Structure formats: structure tokens, C-alpha cells
Amino acid sequence: MFAFATGVSAVFVAGTWAVQRIVVQPEFAAIEEREAETDLERVATAIAHDGDTLARSAQDYAAWDDSLDYVNTRDPEFARSNLIPETLANLGIDAMFFFDRRGDLIWGKRLHAEAGELVADASLAALVRDPRFGLLKHAHTDSKKSGILTRGDRIVIAASAVITNSAKTASPGGSVVVVHLVDAAAVARFSSQVRVPLALMALGGAEAVDVAVAERLAEGQRHWSDSSNPETLVAYSTLSDVRGQPKLLVRIELQRETSRRAAEAANLAAAIAAVGGAALLFGMRRILTRLVVSPLELLATHARQVGQSGDLHARIGLTTRDEIGVLAVEFDSMVARLERSQAELVEVARGAGRAEIARAVLHDIGNVLTTVTISTELLNDRCERSELASLRPAVDLLLQNEDRLTEYVAADSR
Hints:
By secondary structure, the protein is α+β, with helices and mostly antiparallel strands. The chain has helices spanning 2-62, 65-73, 76-82, 85-91, 122-128, 184-194, 211-218, 257-309, 323-385, 391-400, 405-411, and strands spanning 95-100, 105-112, 117-119, 144-151, 154-162, 174-181, 198-202, 223-226, 232-240, 246-255.
């Protein structure tokens, strides 16, 4: 029974652990994956919000009478007065470009953060004016565009707006383009906003992705996660550029705290079940030993002694009210009945012995009497067949002639 209970407890502990691992923990892993998806959405939202902020900044400068006059007159005083490092720093942008209606660059500089001055960046200018992105194409005076631009490993967030007057009644005079460079500082800023470590990678750049990521991209997946590492969950998502094409790969790493706690909870539950099972088994063994095993051993020992010695006077004397106690009482009652039966059998055997002896004595006496009877009958028969009846007359004759007995015997014919 103890071995069976131990097996049941082991199965229970293993079942508890298996349920935690197979059913509960995958649910926590799914929660982590949903959290990762939410974080990826927050990254996308943060980048989109950054583009919207840039679009508002571009529209503020574009819908300004002085900006319209500048693209029309090319007055350098406007650039000296307004297009200065402080302007870009106050707007929180990394670069600004003015293009005329034909798409020719009028003015464009990038803020060198370390030097605190504006510098020319021909490659950036070529990127934002690339006709494939269409940042300089606007259908109406309220038009504004924003989104991600990539070329090689370079990633920027750019926004453009139509240059017009403040009333937005003048014909489009060109476009204002403002840019955020997605560099390490920008990635750190996005990471701080969403409170999760992340990395951004331009798809098609010089930086190669690993084989697993390349396979997912080849399959056209936009969101996926890698949970092979028990410590961290890596989630990926692709973001589209201004043309709607997936050109930016977002990678975030989450510490699998939820799964770790779920695993700890599973181990704790299994440990508690094991400890509880061990305590239950210990108590069960003590109870079984006291209430079942010891009385059974006492009953078995007593039955063995009675069977071996034949002593029917001994009694167990177990007075418990359980089934074993009832069995012991019945066993004592049975032994008592056997003792009484044995005494009666002994008495019957004694009576039978006495009767047998009496029968033997009577038989012997009968044999003697039979012999006497037969002898008597033989004697009677012989007496009946003897000449004894003639003896009386012969005696009388002899008595009558006793005076001349010699002469009588010799001469008388009788």
C-alpha cells in the first residue's frame, strides 16, 4: 500500500509538473509573445509619431510667407537669419531641405551634433529627393508626407510639406523636407520611449541578416518571434517605407521574466506537491503501521502460534472497533469454540474408549459363557445318550444280592 501510494504521489507530482510545463507555461510564453507584438507595435507607433511630428514641423515652415518668398527670391538673408543650427536644434530635427517646384535643391544642411554646426550632406539630399519616394510630389497646398527612407545601411525618417503662404492660397512654390537620422542616438531614443531594447536594420543594406531571419523574410512574414533562448525572447517586425514596401527590420529583445517566473512557479508547485506527498506518505505510513500493519502482524503471529502449537487457551485481546479488531474478536471467539469443541471431542473420545473396553470385556465374557454353554450342552447330550439310566437297576440288583455277590455276578444271567 505504501509503494502504491508512493507511485500515486509520484504520478501526481509528475502530472503537476507536466501540466505546468505543457499547459500553463506555454500560456505564459504566449503572453510574452503578445507583449512582444505589443512592443513592436509601440515601436512602429513611435516611429510613425516621429514622422507625424516631422510633418507638422515641415508644414509649419512650409506654410510661411517668408519661406515662399525665399524659394521665389532665393534671398540669402532668410537662410542666414532662420536656417541656423539653433533652428534645427529647437525643432529637434537633424536636417532640413528647401526644394523649388521643379525639385531642385535651394538649401539643405544637416546639423552636426558634436560640432554644433550645419554641414552639407549630398547623399542625404539625394535620398530625400529620390523620385521613387515621391516626397516632392504634392497634389494640393495641404499635402504633407512622412515616412521611412532607406538607402544601403542608411535609415532616415523624413517628412515634406508644400511651400505656400500662411493662408494656403498661393500656388505651390516647392517643398520643405525635414529629416531625423535613425542613428544610434535615435534608436536609443525610441528604445527609451517604448522601454524595450531594440535594433533597427535597413533591409537590403550591407548588414546581413541571419539565415532564420532571411527565411522568414523570404516567406513574406511581417511579424515573428524566436523563443529558442530560454533567457530572452527575440521578436522581429518589418516596417514599410513611404512607398509601402517593407524596408526596415525592427528587432527587440525581451527578458523572459514571465516564463522564468512561470517555470519557478511550476518548479515550486512540483516541489510543494513533492513535499506534501512526502508528508502525506510519512503520515500515511505511520497511520497504516499503527492501525493496519501492527494489528495484522499481531493477528498473523497469533494465528501462526495457534497453528503451530495448538494452544487454544491463548487470546489476542485486540479490542479496537475497526475491521481488524472485529476480525481479532471473531478469531478469539473461533478459537474459544474450537477449544470447547476439542474438550467435547476429548470427552466423547473418552466415553468411546470406555465403551470399547466394555465391549471387549463383554465379548471376552461372552466367549467364556459361550464355551460353558456349549460344554453344558455337550454334557447334556452325552448324558442323554449314555447308559446312565440303566445304572439304577443294576445298583438295585447288586444291593439285593450283596450277600452272594460273587455267586450272583458269576452265575445270574441278569
